[in-house]
# Entry
Amino acid sequence: MLNKILETADYIRSKVDKIPETAIILGTGLGALVDHISDKKYIPYTEIPNFPVSTVEGHSGNLIFGLLGDKPVMAMQGRFHYYEGYDMKQVTFPVRVMKALGVKTLFVSNAAGGMNPDFRVGDIMVITDHINLFPENPLRGKNYNELGPRFPAMTEPYSHRLIRIADGIAADKGIRLMHGVYVGTPGPTFETPAEYEYFRIIGGDAVGMSTVPEVIVARHGDMEVFGVSVITDLGGKDITEVPTHEEVQRAAEAAQPRMMEIMKELVAKA
Ligand code: HPA
# Structure
């Protein structure tokens, strides 16, 4: 695994002049951030050695290097989901490569179903913590001490410092910004009413099918992490609306301008 990470990092270094210290995984709801990156260089995943190739509708696969404001960033346009059939090492491989390249801060976004009764469709939720319900931890197996400790602490998976900055930006701009615990599930089924209820009872505010594996690996490598969810549908035992992929995309699109306002400034200030 170490050789593959280094090989991929070397390839990327050979293609890019300046390697940034900030990386962004453009999940649902953040795709349009690409339009705000200047001096862009695209590297398609298909050209990157050892990179898996993304298959899902609405997720094209490119690494993008450029400037967000004045800040050099690298962005993943398209991520790898466990439900697509990738194993956890593949899902999190790009985060290992980021770390090998010297990235220090990781921003992630996703679409999620809301269980918190205060949430509305279109809300933006800062992830304050997560519950890992994936059937496998990405760190399972041999630990490479070069990458991080065998038993990493998960006391502060999402940076309190970055959450405070995001709260300040949202307050200044008058944008409603919720806080909550993200429950990470394998998918690809959306939840049954009883499952939404269960996730609420165990302390979840929103549920989705990504992010947790990448964040675990980022924290293993001691990167600072900020995560945000767009609430694209609501679930619970009394909610009968049927969530669809199209509805999720639509709600995420509607939230995108607000998401962009917060993220542009947050990345610049981070
Ligand atoms: N459940 C799981 N994943 C999701 C949902 C949901 O309700 N909405 C968007 N992604």
